[in-house]
């Protein structure tokens, strides 16, 4: 049973890395330490000569700092690290849409856009009974969301059926 909670949406929300994201890591002047098109595994661990770096749940800036700090510990004097997103993990949409499934995430995605990507509403879809489970929510709360609400990588959106 969905709770009567409205999903948080915010223009200043910080993107957090998750399993399936593809990233580029550049350590300037050190090609052997750079990684291109690296898909984050379920463990979220990235191996470096100094050890593992856990990337899951970190922002891009936090990951850059963690890698630079690790490299500073005996490898490089003043490492400059840049991390960029090559490809986001997918979002998921189910329920009363023409083509439910997993779709590639695009920055700035709204529920309205997600429904369109999934082929539009089915005839019995309720435009007011749409719910989201945020991948970043440890409680996996089913929250109500509007058509203009933001969808993030890893989110699961469900469009309910209308009975009228």
Question: What's the short version?
Answer:
The chain has two helices and ten strands. It has 164 residues and is mainly beta. The strands form three sheets. Strands 7-6-10-8-9 form a five-stranded mixed sheet, with helices on one face. The chain has a three-stranded antiparallel sheet with strand order 2-1-5, with helices on one face. A two-stranded antiparallel sheet has the order 3-4.
Structure description:
Strand 6 and strand 7 form a beta hairpin. The chain has 2 domains: 22-87, 2-Layer Sandwich (wza like fold), CATH 3.30.1950.10; 91-161, Outer membrane lipoprotein wza fold like. It is elongated and about 65 Å long. It has 2 helices and 10 strands, in the order E-E-E-E-H-E-E-E-H-E-E-E. Helix content is 12%, strand content 32%. It starts with 21 loop residues before the first strand and ends with a strand. The chain is mainly β.
What is the CA-based Rg, rounded? Answer: 19 Å
CATH architecture of the largest domain: Roll
Q: CATH homologous superfamily of the largest domain - what is it?
A: Outer membrane lipoprotein wza domain like
State the name of the first-level CATH class of the largest domain: Alpha Beta
CATH topology of the largest domain: Outer membrane lipoprotein wza fold like
N-to-C series of helices and strands: EEEEHEEEHEEE
Q: Number of helical segments? A: 2
List low-pLDDT spans.
Answer: 1-12
